[in-house]
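User: Can you predict the 3D structure for this chain?
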Amino acid sequence: MRTLPDKITPLELKSGTVMMDGGNFIVDPNDWSEEFALHMAKEEGIELTPLHWDVINYMRERLAQDGIMVDVRFVSKFLAKQQGISKKEAHNLLYQLFPYGYVKQACRISGMKQPRAWSTG
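Assistant: Here is the predicted structure, written as structure tokens:
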């Protein structure tokens, strides 16, 4: 279930103001920027590596292409193909990159709206 989706607060960045919901998700994914990703990653205690950026960019591309947040299964499939590993290994790698979960960290940092239901990912 969504957490406080209607409680909107501004996040002030050098590049401008980004509106955040009560679950600390971006309200409008079009407001996303690399500065936003770096800020959110810092809040999560994650130092973004090139592999993190590959995942973030893939998620952003799929959002632009499909108009919705990409499911964790497709991100794992992307990592498996890119890294030449099994889907299970890719799933484990995804959780090494974002240890507190796909929705809580990868989706927030990538500028996805808060999902209506939590993925068990």
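The beta strands are 9-13, 16-20. The two ends are 15 Å apart (CA to CA).
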